[in-house]
Amino acid sequence: MRLPDFWTGLIFAAIGVAIAAYAQTFHVPAGAASPKLLPTIVGSFMALFGGLIALRGWQETKQVALPGWLAAPRQVILVVFLPAAVLAFGLLAPVVGSTVMAVTILTLHSILYGIRPIYALLLGVTLGTLVTLLFIHGLGIPLPAGLVEELFS
């Protein structure tokens, strides 16, 4: 299932604009290189080339229709779930902890893919805990701590 060039270009252009706009909110320390320069450049190029791809896609087809998978609610949920899960992890892990978020995300993802809830929960608990332990103790990467992480430390 391939998105037509028009929609792909439009999405990249929108993400590029968002990156460049968000970069303008970064604090600029006195006498230092601006931390907004690189994201502004990358976002601007994404917007420019995404717009060019969208324009080429529009010119080639002269007719833009929504992708067929948008008619299937399950497909839409599967496509939206991953970015939503990443966003939820970033926002909620500092509050509830990385392990709780990893278990929740993995369990929900498994259920969405058709695994029976009891097996999905078992998979989520096992892999969520192992991944958190691997990052914290194996790789030495500090993750946001919650109640469960307090037990591991």
TrEMBL record:
<keyword id="KW-1133">Transmembrane helix</keyword>
<keyword id="KW-0812">Transmembrane</keyword>
<protein>
    <submittedName>
        <fullName>Uncharacterized membrane protein YidH (DUF202 family)</fullName>
    </submittedName>
</protein>
<feature type="domain" description="DUF1468">
    <location>
        <begin position="7"/>
        <end position="144"/>
    </location>
</feature>
<dbReference type="InterPro" id="IPR009936">
    <property type="entry name" value="DUF1468"/>
</dbReference>
<feature type="transmembrane region" description="Helical">
    <location>
        <begin position="78"/>
        <end position="106"/>
    </location>
</feature>
<feature type="transmembrane region" description="Helical">
    <location>
        <begin position="6"/>
        <end position="25"/>
    </location>
</feature>
<feature type="transmembrane region" description="Helical">
    <location>
        <begin position="37"/>
        <end position="58"/>
    </location>
</feature>
<dbReference type="Pfam" id="PF07331">
    <property type="entry name" value="TctB"/>
</dbReference>
<keyword id="KW-0472">Membrane</keyword>
<feature type="transmembrane region" description="Helical">
    <location>
        <begin position="118"/>
        <end position="143"/>
    </location>
</feature>
